Automatic annotation (TrEMBL):
Residues 7-337 form the FAD/NAD(P)-binding domain. GO terms for molecular function: oxidoreductase activity. This is NAD(P)/FAD-dependent oxidoreductase. Residues 440-459 are annotated as: Disordered. The lineage of its organism: Bacteria, Bacillati, Actinomycetota, Actinomycetes, Kitasatosporales. It comes from Streptomyces fuscus. Its EC number is 1.6.5.-. It is an enzyme of class 1 (oxidoreductase). It comes from the Bacteria. Belongs to the NADH dehydrogenase family.
Length: 459
């Protein structure tokens, strides 16, 4: 039994936050019912996004609502607060946060006291001071960005189909992706596949009219699947007339022109930035120890180093990899580790409350899978390399097994089945981003003017 009443604060509702809270409400169910334990989850969104499905959501293979998991439904034994933690004073065991009602209330930031802290805010896009990047580029970390990008690509095809200006047409049909990791490669491959299919319904837009460019600063892409599979991926993308540029950086995207370090210039209305992530800024607004890269220093038991009653895992945590041959190696900030760390983290919190010894997080990385569009993929799992359809099938099976809740598994499987029987959807719903525009115009107001950084891209 828990020695005393424990208030557990979970910061973040992503992989680690949701799975930790979910396991805690199961492990500590009697104590929660008796009021001896209270689990509070503070998260900016009321849902957890299963990010490996974002490329398929962008391509229209999965409905956007099925790549997210509603936290209030799943965490019915926890208190879910939709808000943002702004700072943490662990010495005083308090967190300062804001909610959607903070501005209307006029009362300022609120404070929340806790006994045990789980800091799992995840990561944000790592950007560079590149001219035009903030104004024109779009990321690929959220479901909103994925669907906005899908609408944007289809809208660019509509623009190209309707214009007589070759410069406008060329810029509309040029798509630049920066970053050769999972997000960049899978997003580009899925969207190119979708756009290639959609072009058959345009009388004057052909697949060869479109330019798809992948920019990567290092010497290879998809390092997680190994060097051989990375080279295979490059060759497969180039066979699809995708321009893969290694050892190349984006130097500017101002004035709707992508300028690369190799001297190439591409007029474009689409720049997608997927060149890495960094810890959520909230970790810097704490009194907790950080590494040189700004991640939380953690022990192999997922406690924050030298800080009792504070725990962390996931993208924002530097967790020692006890399975590595080289001392000082940290676990990679990926979903595979995050899911498994969450289980150990919840187990250790429960053990700590019960006065039991803690477990060490130990998981050897078994491999990676990546989709390159419909029926295309690469995989490197348990030392075995797969290409093409077998790798794509393994990608789907693996992620279907990992997406949370039976409800989402069933819905995703149903959508995959239906998409195999019927044709792709090629409708752009970019107007959803401005739902009041038509009414405002009818009521005598001015329609909203899109800015250059609008994913809809109709400026």
């Amino acid at each position: 039994m828990v020695k005393e009443r424990a208030r557990i604060l979970v910061v973040g509702g992503g992989y680690v936050g949701m799975y930790t809270a979910l396991r805690l409400q199961k492990k500590l169910k009697p104590e929660i019912k008796q009021g001896k334990v209270e689990v509070t989850v503070v998260t900016p969104d009321s849902y957890m996004t299963y990010q490996p499905f974002l490329p398929e959501a962008a391509a229209g293979s999965i409905s956007p609502r099925h790549v997210v998991v509603p936290l209030r439904r799943v965490l019915d034994g926890c208190r879910v607060v939709v808000g943002e933690v702004r700072s943490i004073d662990h010495a005083k065991r308090t967190a300062t946060f804001t909610t959607l009602a903070t501005e209307d209330e006029g009362a300022g930031r609120q404070q929340l006291a806790y006994d045990e802290l789980v800091l799992a805010p995840g990561s944000v896009s790592r950007t560079l001071p590149i001219p035009g990047l903030a104004e024109h580029a779009i990321g690929f970390k959220t479901v909103e960005e994925a669907i906005g990008l899908r609408n944007h690509v289809i809208e660019q095809m509509d623009i190209a189909s309707s214009t007589r200006d070759p410069a406008v047409r060329d810029a509309a049909l040029t798509f630049v992706f920066v970053g050769g990791g999972y997000a960049g490669v899978e997003a580009l491959a899925e969207l190119e596949d979708m756009a290639r299919y959609a072009s058959r319904y345009y009388h004057n837009v052909r697949p060869e009219d479109m330019k798809w460019i992948l920019v990567e600063a290092s010497d290879r892409i998809l390092p997680e699947v190994g060097e051989e599979m990375g080279r295979y991926t490059v060759s497969q993308l180039r066979r699809r007339n995708i321009d893969v540029r290694l050892h190349t950086r984006l130097e500017s995207c101002a004035d709707r022109t992508a300028v690369l370090s190799d001297g190439a210039r591409f007029p474009t209305r689409t720049v997608v930035w997927t060149a890495g992530v960094k810890p959520n800024p909230v970790v810097a607004a704490t009194d907790l120890p950080l590494t040189e890269r700004g991640r939380l220093k953690c022990t192999a038991e997922l406690q924050i180093e030298g800080t009792p009653h504070a725990w962390a895992a996931g993208d924002a945590a530097a967790v020692p990899d006890v399975t590595a041959d080289t001392p000082g190696t940290e676990t990679a900030p990926n979903a595979q580790h995050a899911l498994r760390q969450a289980k150990v983290l919840a187990e250790n919190i429960a053990r700590s409350l019960h006065g039991e010894p803690l477990q060490t997080y130990s998981h050897k990385y078994v491999g990676s899978v990546a989709s390159l569009g419909l029926h295309k993929g690469v995989a490197h799992v348990y030392g075995r390399r797969l290409k093409g359809y077998p790798a794509w099938f393994m990608h789907r099976v693996y992620h279907l097994s990992r997406v949370p809740t039976f409800n989402r598994k069933a819905r995703v499987l149903a959508e995959w089945t239906l998409s195999g029987l019927f044709k792709r959807e090629i409708v752009s719903l970019g107007s959803l981003e401005h739902p009041r525009a038509e009414f405002e115009l009818a009521a005598g107001g001015k329609p909203p003017v899109d800015s250059d950084n609008d994913p809809k891209g109709s400026s």
